[in-house]
Amino acid sequence: MPQRPLAPPFALSSLTLCLLYGLGQPAHAQDPTPEPPPKLKPSRTLAVRPKTERPALVITADKLGSTLDQQSSAEGKAELRYGDILMRADQVTYGQADDLAHATGKVELSSNGNIFRGPDLQLYVSRFEGTFLNPSYFFSLTGGAGHAERISFTDQKHVFAVDGTYSSCPVVDGQQPDWQITAKGLALDFDANEGKATGGVLHFLGVPILAAPSLSFALNGARKSGWLPPNISLDNRSGFELGTPYYWNIAPNRDATLTPFVMTKRGAGMDSEFRYLEPEHKGQLNLDLLPNDRVAGRSRWAGDANLDGQLPHDWRYQLRAEKVSDDDYWKDLPQRMHSKTVRLLSQDLQVNRARELGWGTIESYLRVQHWQALQGTDTTAQFITPYQRSPQLGIRATTKADDAVLDGFTPWGRSARLEGSLELEYNRFDLAGDALPTQRASGQVQTGERLHVLGHVSAPIGGAGWWLIPRVAVNAASYQLDEPGADGRRSMARTIPTFSLDSGLVFERDSSLLGRAMRQTLEPRVLYVNTPYRAQQNLPNFDSAAKDFNFDSIYSENQFTGVDRVSDAHTLTVGAISRWINPTQGEEVLRLGLVQRVQFRDQQITPDGTPITQRFSDLLLLAAAHLNEQWWADGTLQFNPESNRSERTVMRLRYSPGPFRTVSLAYRLARGQSEQVEVAWQWPLFGRAGAGGQAVRDAVAAGTSGGGGCQGAWYSAGRIQYSLFDKRLTDSVAGVEYDAGCWVMRMGVQRQSTGRAETNTRLMLQLELVGLSQLGSNALKVLRDNVPGYRQLSSDRSATLDGSSP
Questions:
Q1: How many Cα atoms sit within 13 Å of 40 on the Cβ side?
Q2: Which of 46, 131, 684, 803 could form a disulfide with 780 if both were Cys (CB 3.0 to 4.6 A apart)?
Q3: Burial, 418: exposed, middle or buried (Cβ in 10 Å; 0-12, 13-18, 19+)?
Q4: pLDDT tens per residue, range 307-334
Q5: Domain extents for the chain?
């Protein structure tokens, strides 16, 4: 508690002038011979007021009266100002000896942006201590408001209300807000950003929905220990689920959340999360337990670790690990999993150190990577498991590169020099316990070791609008297998060189598009690659796979990822992109591009082992347009000139005319594999869209008698995916939202495919009390993750912007 001053901190001279000026007379009376106004004295420096200097106390009114050094009175539009404190009332009396102000009749008190209104106020001005009878109030920090039988001020940061209420809905005479907390005692600590309600009850639409002897809540969304609103969900696999999270704010840099839950079909369990943030370490640990799943008849669990940190001697570590109890966990309890590949979970530990030298960087690294494959019993849905690295050891040296060459291919004014890199790496490969039996079949490569060397040297040169990069690379690898391969060997090696020449130009000109002035570019690019054929069919393949065929991969030297496979090539890739750019804003309005690869000899090393004899590759076309603020469109097309049809197509269109209004349409085709249509949207249905967010501010500005209660508007949001190939709906979500200004209700359905004939359907219901918390399932996060361009309705009013828990 701050110390109280020993004397009233007002400037006597300022108050005396005010009182002498209006003593016993109306405020508009004038002295017939006014003195000339005081003049400012020039100074060469800005004076800083000493911390001991106190602000002046000034009283103005239609009528003023005073007894010197005892008491002052003001009537009619009375105002008392002291620092950032402003008191308005019909009548104000101020005792100079005890620093006590007494205001009556339409009293309004403003301090630090907080506003209090009522009939009677007594306040010790300098220490902001006193009592306000029957006030209403508004807190600018939280956007919350309410009323009370009595408010006691300890200081400007501590307020206690007796029989008080709190809500982010506006206080309207004769009306109850849509939601509010009522309490016998309500203590607000703005220093700690904490509110505590004794005998508190949370009411929604006049119905009590939560009661407790003591309720506490953060005033500005900050972290604090306590029970969080319950989590509620309903799906066809687990039934109705209710969880009651307890948040433990252990320290400013550590916290934990424990969530006991119960599922009507499966039973009771516990979810837990621990987070920490140290100067050199940070991380998050999750453990979810279901001790006795009544449906599965066994214990279920899931664990996840996400850790980063600094070790001695400039070493850094990173751990990304997730593991679950069984193969069906991703179907039954998907909301408790974090991996984007829910059927293939990685346990990946990496340690590395990078040293910056005058000529470049040397990086040393160690990695251990294991996998858990959730195969299940359906043999048609099982998949090949990646090889594990137990361990991976390496060192990599890289010279300093010219970023202008590597990023955007516009090496303005660069000088020619040699650049290169060298990587030496050892790997021990083995198979996970979930690997398919065919991967362990006799005669197949199972496990082994590899030592490889990757290196390249290049000499980039260029000018203001061109570049040329000759490059020589080598990929050498030596293998030691645990069992003989198909040719009976256990030891083998190979070395494969590659020469490439990458060149491009950038042209610009002033142009126009649809009557608008534009800057148009033409950016042709040519890549020549020559890699000799080396037989690799009898070599193991631990980490290589075919690259996706797109605008980036077509300009790469090797059509495989990883080390074990290097495509033989004698090719020339030719392409160009043209852009139309708004010269005043720098915004790209239109982009058109095409690229094709010409093959001078047959390619023997292919993903399926079948040589490619086609001289011209598929033609890649792309287009992207942003013609105005409302429309976006983009698409890519892979066209086969021999079959005269498209092999892959992706087309997207989005219309967004304003806030909370967006519609997108997407079409995706992979010939012979999939064909899918997707529609996503967020759109107002009816009601006063956007009015709810302004209701509180309007009510405060007009006084509590001028509010109109929470305004409402209905919205719809969702994403629907339909497979034309399978003729069925796939992963989709659809919902409606009602925005009442001080609360938002979300209702929806989420459908996730877990197999060709299996789905997991989840019902979502969430109530967001703006400025307080969210109750129910996390529908907000689901909508944000699934709807392109989705915007939270309460984004300008809520402390929770992402729908995540504290």
A1: 3
A2: 803
A3: exposed
A4: 999 999 999 999 999 999 999 999 999 8
A5: 12-32+46-226, 227-342, 350-499, 506-645, 659-806
